[in-house]
């Protein structure tokens, strides 16, 4: 039986969702979410229905398992009705595909009304029983970046069995990234239909790897027909990871990639399909094509990938035959990173692992912003392409990695005595150090007549040196007409790119108070100690997501207030300059002033403010 608390949560969601939906929709009413294509053929109805339901439910933070169950019930109900009355009456030209089509707007209206009816029925009697799920925590971020349009699409199905009502299999999950080119239509089509084509393969239950390859091929063939009907000229690469029990299945076309991280080390799962790969070059040339250098290696001087879904005008050189791999899992795996070439072209796997590791350590294992940090690292490294990153955690990052091999256990037993001796020595050394520190502290207190410092002076850091918490800005995940959020430009430096490595604070020469000077040294010491995950940029926006920033700003603020009370920086010392305080906080750039800032440039020589020389370094 479902836990009472979980059932209460589901019912509460259904109540709120029904209240917000304002159904049923009538002809001409605005849709809650517009479909991404104009026409839908008969074989596309299931995929479109599932996508509309899932996207709409996720907007309201519906639990994944409940969203999958509602989407399945809605799709089944709709597929059992007669949709022929909604088909378009089109004359079939010679050689054209005779598949009946309907307007996607009409289908969307039917889907949302049926979803509303299903929610009302389930609120009265909840038939859904959630299955126990493995641990699949995910972090996702996607940005348009410098491109005119967003052509990436991604899909996550952590509860694959519920979405397709599969009863006789181990728990399964599906994650995929699709990177479109020449338009987004191929990526949308693949994201909506590849998993449906996968589960419909005869070999799916016995051989998921073969089923994945056939699903890629079928998706390619059907999209080529759709492109012919609707005059589309585009394609998409894609990488899919499918988890069944303790086995990982990977299939891919093109240069979107996935890596596995096990015990902090990168495990290569695939080789991307690029024209300069020797076997791909030979295949293309054997078909009568060529690989030409034009900024990068391109098939017939055009596309920089050698395999993709779509691209009918480039067939057979750009083929839709996916490669695949099978990898058993032993429980020591940390996470997967799926991303498009906009990420991998500027960030190598080892660097990606370092970014994730640093983020988890700094945030006590919190995975919320991991994908955002990865996207920021690619963007700061120079990527101008669309960027999509999915991080799938295969175990809880807050728990220590399991010891899986017998050899390790034996090694631990054999080295137990030696370890105990080492631990005893370390404890003795630490005890001696603590005694020396206590003596020094007593001497300092006796000398200064003050009291010992408190833990509050540690900048919110734990004993291990990592911040206890981190504030982060919410990100706009919308694809179309979006503006960059602060999170997208996450700066991993303490001061922001415009100041790090260039702040110079000295006591005495500028009449700084001792408190302000001490605060500045704390500030500088932490800046030196902080490891930045991205290259330094000349100009950017500070996101203020760094956990040490609030405490450092507080120290500087307190020091400035004490300075004023003691007379430092008062009128007899000189006029306060507004631009300097803003410059110190990273809100204005240091160095030569801009024209609109020249009014603050008449500075008296005796002004007691910290100086930030343009070329100075720590």
From TrEMBL:
Location of the region described as Disordered in the Swiss-Prot/TrEMBL record: 396-477
GO terms assigned for molecular function: metal ion binding; protein serine/threonine phosphatase activity
EC number: 3.1.3.16
SUPFAM superfamilies linked to this entry: PP2C-like (SSF81606)
Subcellular location as annotated: Cytoplasm; Nucleus
Pfam families: PP2C
Catalytic activity: O-phospho-L-threonyl-[protein] + H2O = L-threonyl-[protein] + phosphate; O-phospho-L-seryl-[protein] + H2O = L-seryl-[protein] + phosphate
Residue intervals passing through the bilayer: none
Keywords from the UniProt entry: Cytoplasm, Hydrolase, Magnesium, Manganese, Metal-binding, Nucleus, Phosphoprotein, Protein phosphatase, Repeat
UniProt GO cellular component terms: cytoplasm; nucleus
InterPro entries, per database record: Ig-like_dom, PP2C, PP2C_BS, PPM-type-like_dom_sf, PPM-type_phosphatase-like_dom
Compositional bias annotation for Acidic residues: 405-441
CDD domains according to UniProt: PP2Cc (cd00143)
Enzyme class: hydrolase
Quaternary structure and partners: Heterotrimer. Interacts with PAX1 and ARHGEF6 (or ARHGEF7).
UniProt name for this protein: Protein phosphatase 1E
Annotated organism of origin: Maylandia zebra
